[in-house]
Write a structure and sequence with these properties.
- This protein is of the alpha/beta class and 219 residues long.
- The chain contains seven helices and five strands, in the order E-H-E-H-E-H-E-H-E-H-H-H.
- The chain has a five-stranded parallel β-sheet, with helices on both faces.
- Helix 4 links the parallel strand 4 and strand 5.
- The N and C termini lie far apart (46 Å).
- InterPro entries: Bact_response_regulator (IPR050595), CheY-like_superfamily (IPR011006), Sig_transdc_resp-reg_receiver (IPR001789).
């Protein structure tokens, strides 16, 4: 049974959280509420999330400050953050959101379909990344169990090829997403593409390290 991804919804207004839940319920993932920046940071201490929808205007710790804390933590720095705001103070205000680590910035009232589509991309990438990491971990345990037999070696090689093919499919999907976002020619496209590129590069590097002979000293 495939485990559902968790999506963190952060907003101080209950009606906004209800609206987000109504929009995102069709994704059939686990939606977690937080009514403040402090509550969001507490949730991030124990759970892993595919994406965070973060309201900018909140009393006390606002969205920018909350994002800064998230990005300073090793455990959470790579979680995509989508800022939601009811105000627009122009490009400087938007740039502050990207500088704080957001991968996207959406002004209210937002198009429900657009929001759902953007969130679904990060959920899908998160799920595939989890699957790849799990399979890579199982393969590493198998390889570290001792010198494999010929049959085990062939099985390992086949699994490595399958993992590589699956990762290639994710890379292709990310490339298509980047081209689609490039059409907007805004900072969101640049930030999103850069984030996906970092994640996929790390996965590809980890997979390459599993290849026979990888990391073996020369001589």
């Amino acid at each position: 049974m495939v485990q559902k991804a968790k999506i963190l919804l952060v907003d101080d207004r209950p009606e906004n959280l209800l609206a987000l839940e109504a929009i995102l319920s069709a994704l059939d993932q686990t939606l977690v509420r937080a009514s403040s920046g402090e509550e969001a940071l507490k949730a991030l201490l124990t759970d892993d999330f595919a994406v965070i929808l973060l309201d900018v205007q909140m009393p006390g710790m606002d969205g920018f400050e909350t994002a800064a804390h998230i990005k300073r933590r090793e455990r959470t720095r790579d979680i995509p953050i989508i800022f939601l705001t009811a105000i627009n103070h122009g490009p400087h205000h938007t740039f502050r959101g990207y500088a704080a680590g957001a991968v996207d910035y959406i002004s209210k009232p937002f198009d429900p379909w657009v929001l759902r589509a953007k969130v679904s991309v990060f959920v899908e990438l998160y799920m595939k990344n989890c699957q790849l990491r799990e399979q890579a971990s199982l393969l590493r345990l198998q390889l570290e169990g001792g010198r494999p037999s010929a049959d085990e070696a062939r099985e390992s090689a086949g699994l490595l090829a399958e993992l590589s093919a699956r990762l290639a499919a994710v890379e292709e999907q990310a490339e298509a997403l980047s081209k689609q976002l490039d059409e907007t020619a805004d900072a969101a496209a640049v930030a999103t593409a850069a984030h996906l590129e970092r994640k996929l590069t790390g996965l590809r590097r980890a997979l390459d390290a599993l290849e026979p002979g990888a990391g073996t000293p020369a001589g």
